[in-house]
Amino acid sequence: MIGLKEDIEKEHKIYEDEIHTLNNKLEMMTIAMQEKEATLHQKLVEVEARTAQTNEKFREYKDDVKKITKERQDYLKNELAYRDTEQRLTKERRKTADLQRRLDELKEKLAEHTQTPSCGNGES
Question: What was the pLDDT predicted at 3?
Answer without folding.
Answer: 81
